[in-house]
């Protein structure tokens, strides 16, 4: 049982306004594995994440979470098992940090106030925000906001967490603290699917890299192979462009 | 001046007896308007196309016709089809139905001013749409709407005076009675104006207090710091 993938994505297709953004994407994610999805912008990476928890339901194909097909029926229960970390954080603006991490534990999982508080404190401590419990999102830096939103996802005890460009909205000097938290999570055995160009994370913590372009997976493999000996010309071109950007900034 | 004070001493108690009717009418109308506005805003923002159109039609009709016409329609017109309401009820219904259209528009504006990511994040965590509305959207939109809602509450408080037109003995009609009895219209309407000012002042101050107490950094931009 434990060697079946925790997430199985099969032939996902999605069309937006006449344009086919995803043209049949398939991959598996094993328990405890972390995969990073890279590729040019507009390639359907974020759409892929949103198809997995049906925030944006795919037109075709299927998503199987731990042996259960993800479908509209019982979707709330399934979404509770899939953490989602947004580029724009999307912390609930009217709630302090502690309540942000407690709310869905209470109203979705039905945990007691005591239990929700305990789990929230654990995760906030883990991301280094134990001293910010009473702060409102607007009072936090971008890096703190993203760490709070990671704690919010973790407190739900999800089977995996989807990260949608978690550092793209951050000032360069703040990305480090978020990447650090993500590395620690990956090393602690959290199952993660990360859309990001954060090479630091890719090299240090990703088990596998997926290169996507034009709505399809061009190639995938462990970072050591994919970064040094990519099979496809498009992959190496993209990697060159990426390292260029990194050297410039 | 001493004459006016003497006038006030004599007639103020009679006028103040109208405060109960005016405030009662206002309170019933506001509550009715609030409840109906919630239904309207739900239809306008979240419901299917037919319900959206129906709610839009409602809002346009009530915002696009004079309140006095609406009141006469209800009090004088409806009896023709067998619906007879006493003046207080007719006025409360008319003001309430009218206010609902405005309150709904203010709520809609507040809800639509919220970033879409708030609803998306709530749904992504497994909240139902109802839970997301109750625990995320309403608390946020509620805070944002207070200044406009406060304005609406004050407008409606003043609008209660149109009940005078269908013979309800509220504040304004009492002032007129005093005027005809004493032929001191200037003094009579000055007194009633002062009473209205005190009432609207209380409403404004109360809601201002509520707004300050519920303020959250970054959510409302009136006086608070923006992120």
UniProtKB/TrEMBL annotation, chain A:
Return the InterPro entries for the record: AAA+_ATPase, ABC_ATPase_HisP-typ, ABC_transporter-like_ATP-bd, ABC_transporter-like_CS, MetN_ABC_transporter-like, P-loop_NTPase
Q: How does it sit in the membrane?
A: Peripheral membrane protein
The protein's UniProt keywords, in alphabetical order, are:
Amino-acid transport, ATP-binding, Cell membrane, Membrane, Nucleotide-binding, Transport
Q: Quote the protein name from its UniProt record.
A: Amino acid ABC transporter ATP-binding protein
The record, for SMART domains, names:
AAA
Family, according to the entry, reads as follows:
Belongs to the ABC transporter superfamily.
An example of a Gene Ontology cellular component annotation for this protein is: plasma membrane
Q: Which domain of life is it from?
A: Bacteria
Q: Which residue ranges does the record assign to the ABC transporter domain?
A: 7-239
What species is given as this protein's source?
A: Billgrantia montanilacus
Q: Which GO terms describe its molecular function?
A: ABC-type amino acid transporter activity; ATP binding; ATP hydrolysis activity
Q: Where in the cell is it found?
A: Cell inner membrane
TrEMBL record, chain B:
Any idea where this protein resides? Cell inner membrane; Cell membrane
Q: Where are the transmembrane segments?
A: 20-43, 55-78, 188-207
Molecular function (Gene Ontology), one example: transmembrane transporter activity
Q: Where does this chain mainly localize?
A: membrane
Task: Give the UniProt keywords, A-Z.
Answer: Amino-acid transport, Cell membrane, Membrane, Transmembrane, Transmembrane helix, Transport
Supply one GO CC term from the record: ATP-binding cassette (ABC) transporter complex
Q: Which GO terms describe its biological process?
A: amino acid transport
Which first-to-last residue range defines the signal peptide? none
InterPro entries named among the record's database cross-references: AA_ABC_transptr_permease_3TM, ArtM/GltK/GlnP/TcyL/YhdX-like, MetI-like, MetI-like_sf
The similarity comment for this entry is: Belongs to the binding-protein-dependent transport system permease family. HisMQ subfamily.
Record-given protein name: Amino acid ABC transporter permease
Q: How does it sit in the membrane?
A: Multi-pass membrane protein
Per UniProt, residues of the ABC transmembrane type-1 domain are 15-204
């Amino acid at each position: 049982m434990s060697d079946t993938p925790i997430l199985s994505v099969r032939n996902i297709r999605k069309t937006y306004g006449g344009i086919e953004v995803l043209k049949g994407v398939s991959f598996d994610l094993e328990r405890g594995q972390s995969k990073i999805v890279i590729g040019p912008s507009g390639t359907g990476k974020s759409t892929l994440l949103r198809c997995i928890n049906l925030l944006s339901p795919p037109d075709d194909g299927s998503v199987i979470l731990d042996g259960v097909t993800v479908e509209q029926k019982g979707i709330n229960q399934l979404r509770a098992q899939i953490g989602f970390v947004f580029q724009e954080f999307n912390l609930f603006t009217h709630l302090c940090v502690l309540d942000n991490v407690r709310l869905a534990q209470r109203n979705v999982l039905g945990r007691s106030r005591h239990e929700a508080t305990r789990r929230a404190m654990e995760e906030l401590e883990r991301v280094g925000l134990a001293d910010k419990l009473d702060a409102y999102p607007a009072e936090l830096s971008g890096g703190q906001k993203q760490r709070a939103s990671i704690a919010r996802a973790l407190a739900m005890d999800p089977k995996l967490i989807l990260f949608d460009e978690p550092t793209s909205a951050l000032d360069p000097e703040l990305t480090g603290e978020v990447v650090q938290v993500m590395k620690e999570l990956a090393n602690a055995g959290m199952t993660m699917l990360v859309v990001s160009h954060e090479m630091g994370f890719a090299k240090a913590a990703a088990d596998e890299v997926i290169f996507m372009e034009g709505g399809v997976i061009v190639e995938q493999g462990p970072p050591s192979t994919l970064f040094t000996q990519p099979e496809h010309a498009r992959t190496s071109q993209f990697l060159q462009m990426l390292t260029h950007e990194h050297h410039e900034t | 001046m001493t004459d006016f004070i003497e006038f006030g001493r004599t007639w103020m108690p009679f006028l103040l007896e109208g405060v109960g009717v005016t405030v009662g009418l206002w309170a019933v109308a506001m509550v009715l308007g609030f409840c109906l506005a919630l239904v309207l805003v739900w239809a306008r923002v979240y419901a299917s196309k037919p319900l959206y159109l129906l709610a839009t039609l409602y809002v346009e009709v009530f915002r696009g016709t004079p309140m006095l016409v609406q009141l006469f329609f209800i009090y004088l017109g409806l009896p023709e089809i067998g619906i007879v309401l006493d003046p207080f009820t007719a006025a409360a219904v008319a003001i309430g139905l009218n206010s609902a259209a405005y309150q709904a528009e203010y709520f809609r504006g507040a809800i639509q001013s919220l970033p879409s990511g708030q609803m998306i994040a709530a749904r992504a965590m497994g909240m139902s749409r109802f839970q997301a509305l109750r625990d995320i959207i309403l608390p946020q939109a509620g805070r944002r709407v207070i200044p406009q809602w406060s304005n609406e509450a004050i407008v409606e408080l003043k609008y209660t005076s149109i009940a005078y037109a269908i013979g309800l003995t509220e504040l304004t009609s009492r002032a007129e009675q005093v005027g005809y009895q004493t032929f001191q219209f200037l003094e009579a309407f000055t007194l009633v104006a002062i009473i209205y000012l005190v009432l609207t002042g209380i409403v404004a101050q109360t809601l201002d207090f509520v707004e300050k107490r519920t303020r959250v950094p970054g959510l409302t931009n009136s006086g608070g710091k923006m992120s």
